[in-house]
Amino acid sequence: KRRSTRFCPEYPRRCRARGYKYRARHLQPATHTPIHTHRPTVAPRRPRTTDPPRRPGSMVELNERLTTLGIAVNLVTYLTATMHVGNAEAANVVTNFMGTSFMLCLLGGFVADSFLGRYLTIAIFTAIQASGVTILTISTAAPGLRPPACTAEGGGIGTCSRASGAQLGVLYLALYLTALGTGGLKSSVSGFGSDQFDESDRTEKSQMMRFFNWFFFFISLGSLLAVTVLVYVQDNLGRPWGYGACAASIAVGLVVFLAGTRRYRFKKLAGSPLTQIAAVVVAAWRKRGVQLPTDTSMLYDIDVGKVAAIEGASTKKSKLKERIPHTKQFRFLDHAAINSDPAGEPTKWQLATLTDVEEVKTVARMLPIWATTIMFWTVYAQMTTFSVSQATTMDRHIGPSFQIPAGSLTVFFVGSILLTVPIYDRIVVPVSRRLNGNPHGLTPLQRIGIGLVLSILAMTSAALVEVKRLRVARDSAVPAGAPVPMTVFWLIPQFFFVGAGEAFTYIGQLDFFLRECPKGMKTMSTGLFLSTLSLGFFVSSALVTVVHKITGDRRPWIADDLNKGELYKFYWLLAGVCLANLVVYLFAARWYKYKAGRPGADGSVNGVEMADAEPCLH
């Protein structure tokens, strides 16, 4: 009896103990007769399911939105009213906090792609965010970590002691720990969710689309709760209660995320596209003195089916890339593809493929569009700073007893986004389709252009409303600290224009960077997009600093008491800068040529692409 050729339908361990090969019953040939018929046959144990969890990381993202937005939209009132910081400095604290959060998304993505992986990145940076919010809760609760209240004089606001350096230091430590955690986890949450699904499987691909629908639902839910419930709790129950609830919810979200560890799927590290860009630039610089060949076919390029000579390359990786035709722009970068030592084994820092070089060129061609979209987010930053400061000086009552928190006015901003998207889909797209013959309606660059126009209208509206507010304050002779007899709903137009502009600009940028980035650098679309948000906030900080320094000695544009300042001039300045930026953008958009064979020609952004392009929604 040759047991080595027989098969046993029982459990693997029992079969091997008897010297038989194991084969599950459903894999046996139809003619196979089980042996050991005197024993009852037992069906083999089913392997543990590998079905992906339905919404991995969604709770973490909801808590992140609730925390970050809840802090940002109401932070300026805490800085001015409790910490007694001036309006200009308070605005810069908020914009620097938000700018750092988005900039650290790039760092978090690099760490996740190159070192830790997305799972560990989410876990570690969520813990960092929780620690930052915990310190923030303590700083708002401990009396020694904030200055004493202002002393009343003559029925108005008297002397106010500014927060000390130590008190502000604790507050800034909490804010930037929160920003670090936010940037790290946001860069990986949606990408980790997409890792749980197999795109080649039709069922899992449909499940992935459902996951992203729920993921965006949790983002919207967190944003809505932040600007309504959380801001109300901060203003009426106290900031320690609001921030403490955020810290607790983050901890619960982390526990829920870790509880699903055994069911998660983990992918190997893919590396960061920033490394490829750096490698191409370094290789080109090293061979800057080598003459370029007249025949571009002499440049080194990928060879499908063969292992590339570059260190770390593989046949599989080469097959994933498609050759890109050579272009004559940015010829300096072609030096990176000169193979000066064919017999050697150069590293990627010494030799790059022509395809890698062309991918870097593609990114370089997108930079003019990238640069001219930054100003929109500078305008966006004003909705969380000076617009909130304006609201604190106006009548916010609805009825005799209820008063809208100043930070909750951003709900009109969110509402305008929700209103603009269906209007665009149902009205703008059909009309533009008939006018220009484009089946997709507007192109990504046209959407961005509309968003930039709306940003100009927003600043124009803000300036006109501020002129009216100052006139009412002057005519009414309101005392310092008293609200101006003018309803806060005058601010709705500027929130509406910025919200509608975001609906066009955000989607346009996402679509543009996603489609135009080369296939081998899809995650680079994320970096380009997020950097415009981050730089927009930092540009706002720089403009506020320069304007306040120039005008502060005379009649300041940005005064601690807005009734004594000329904030409308700052809004007019932003409107003028945005107008000049729009002109430059129009030239850049006219110069830019869409690449051939654009992916996603149906105008949609599928789940896989969205996972690469949107790990850091604001």
From TrEMBL:
Origin superkingdom: Eukaryota
SUPFAM superfamilies for the chain: MFS general substrate transporter
Entry keyword set: Membrane, Transmembrane, Transmembrane helix
Spans through the membrane: 93-112, 118-138, 211-234, 240-259, 363-382, 402-424, 445-467, 487-507, 528-550, 570-588
Biological process per Gene Ontology, one example term: oligopeptide transport
Alphabetized GO MF terms: transmembrane transporter activity
Stored Pfam families: PTR2
Family: Belongs to the major facilitator superfamily. Proton-dependent oligopeptide transporter (POT/PTR) (TC 2.A.17) family.
The name this protein goes by in its record: Major facilitator superfamily (MFS) profile domain-containing protein
